[in-house]
Specification:
Layout lengths: L3 E7 L32 E6 L7 H4 L2 E3 L19 E6 L2 E7 L2 E9 L5 E5 L30 E8 L5 E4 L6 H8 L17 E7 L2 E7 L14 H5 L7 E7 L5 H15 L8 E6 L4 H5 L1 H9 L6 E5 L8 H18 L13 E2 L10 E3 L5 E3 L2 H9 L5 H13 L2 H7 L7 E4 L2 E4 L2
């Protein structure tokens, strides 16, 4: 199961605004009629409970929304670009991925149907009809459409399960999950039989809950040894932990301490979760005979906050009592959960990640020249025909209104210097 994937998402660019004038016999004073460009399409991620892996992103890592179309004459606006929805499993975290590492958690899709905008489409550019003023009745300016966001994000899947079974390899976690649910994980007598977390639905009377078998942990798991850090993250969403230990092995107490240490080092909050200790293989004589001795050792184990059950996955001994304990702790945990909202909403909100917008107006480029980066000025320079003398005069007036000329003076602009805006440059005078 692939539970992490890096994808690139590209929102659509906004369509350019249009410069046009209405010239009709019945409309002698028609005036400017350039329509606005359409907005670019967004890229959404949508949580879908029917998907349980991120495998498809290995084959398709790029997702591109449609551009908005250009505005037309007679105040006809361009069409909006189609957005795209990319389905991901419930339980997917979305991280901003830069420089080959996670930079920021953008959102957590933990509910079926939940949506998140990961790339927002560019705004459609205004047509010249927006630039009419009392002193300028025939504007020659229009905006280019804004660029859609381009992002690389890492999808990180954390399985959604109520109860997590943890323990060292061959402790019997898979066998217990098989015995209490309909799950059929691979089982064998060699270490690391289970290479992927396995989910199973456990029925308890009219109730049911989901348990997950976390592949065997070993010493150093929290640092990545044995892929332990990849496995441990799946435990973070569980409400109850069941620590399975092989009662026939030497130093049962030491094994329990080792796994709890790995869990604590990976995430201290995990150690605070309600925990049940299941000593497996009660069907073996060496376990049944030493049951009382093991119980005494566990009672003297400092810091153990677990109920202890002796079970056998082979003969099903003690499994009903174990299921009862899982259900009781799970119900208690659910009752103690704090509600983030006073009442549930029927409509699942769309997550919009907050992205810091640049406040720069003028910057110096690598060659020491001043470049105007104000978004409105850049869109006007791209969307207008500045080869026309009248259009350039109107453009300069807009720079004054946007206080960009003031910013240029404060940045040290002198007469004769070159100003860069988008792909256009002019000499300052």
């Amino acid at each position: 199961m692939l539970d992490s994937a890096v994808i690139e998402v590209r929102a659509g660019n906004g369509g350019n605004g249009n410069v046009a004038f209405i010239r009709e016999a019945l409309l002698p004073r028609g005036g400017p009629g350039g329509g606005d460009g359409g907005h670019g399409g967004d890229v959404f991620l949508v949580a879908d409970s029917s998907i349980n892996t991120l495998t498809k992103f290995h084959w398709q890592p790029h997702f591109i929304a449609k551009n908005g179309s250009k505005g037309d004459g007679h105040n006809r606006n361009g069409a909006r670009g189609d957005s795209i929805e990319v389905t991901v499993p419930v339980g997917t975290e979305v991280w901003l991925w830069e420089d080959q590492e996670d930079k920021k958690l953008l959102g957590d899709l933990s509910e079926h149907g939940q949506k998140m905008i990961v790339a927002e489409g560019g705004r459609g550019g205004w047509g010249n009809a927006h630039f009419v003023t009392p002193t300028q009745q025939e504007p020659l300016l229009a905006e280019a459409g804004g660029e859609g966001e381009i992002r690389r994000v890492r999808l990180n899947l954390k399985l959604l399960a109520d109860v997590g079974l943890v323990g060292m390899p061959n402790a019997g976690k898979s066998s217990i999950l098989t015995a209490i649910s309909a799950a059929r994980p691979k089982v064998a007598d060699y270490p690391f039989t289970t290479l992927e977390p396995v989910l199973g639905v456990v029925e308890f009377g009219p109730q049911a809950f989901v348990a997950v078998d976390i592949p065997g942990l070993i010493e150093g798991a929290h640092t990545g040894t044995g892929l332990g850090d990849e496995f441990l993250k799946h435990v973070q969403r569980t409400k109850v932990l069941v620590h399975v230990v092989d009662g026939s092995e030497d130093d049962v107490v030491g094994r329990i301490k080792a796994i709890n240490y790995e869990i604590t080092q990976f995430d201290p909050e995990l150690a605070k979760k309600p925990q049940i200790l299941a000593v497996n293989k009660l069907d073996l004589d060496e376990v049944s005979v030493l049951q009382a001795e093991i119980t005494t050792e566990l009672e003297n184990l400092e810091g153990l906050h677990s109920e202890v059950f002796f079970v056998s996955a082979a003969t099903y001994d003690g499994l009903e009592n174990l299921k009862q304990a899982m259900f009781n702790l799970l119900r208690k945990s659910q009752q103690n959960e704090t509600r983030t909202t006073s009442e549930a909403s029927d409509e699942i909100p769309v997550i919009r990640p907050l992205v810091r917008k640049s406040s720069d107006v003028v910057i110096r480029d690598s060659e020491g020249q001043l470049r105007v980066v104000h978004p409105k000025a850049v869109r006007l320079a791209k969307g207008s025909n500045l080869e026309l003398h009248e259009a350039r005069l109107q453009f300069h007036r807009r720079l004054e209104q946007l206080k960009i000329t003031k910013a240029l003076r404060e940045a040290g602009m002198e007469e004769g210097d070159t100003v860069l805006i988008a792909d256009w440059e002019f000499d300052w005078d």
